[in-house]
Amino acid sequence: MDVLIHLFVGLHIIGIASLLGGFLTQMKAMGRGTARFVPAMLHGALTMLVTGVVLVGLNQADDQPVNNIKIGVKLTLLIVILGLVYVKRDDEKVEKGLFGLVGLLTTANIFIAVLWT
Description:
This protein is mainly alpha-helical. It has helices at 2-25, 27-32, 39-61, 68-87, 96-115.
């Protein structure tokens, strides 16, 4: 079971890397007001959602403690991120504030995962 959990943690990290990497590649364009949500951001957020749900299930099946409040906060942030990226994915450019909000929420999600024990 540990190998399976570690595999999904790795996939979860790949998802966050895709989401954050897509944001970071568009930061220069954000300064010009031409940033857009790239497909990597949507795919990364979806990967995070699927692997996160699987991880919660695997940890509960392995009788490991799961902080449901932390998971709820992270899930809420991810759903907001996913909703914003999904709705605006076809727009040629996204407003600076909205694009920055996705980056801020993504970063907050990372720090919640690492620092909330």
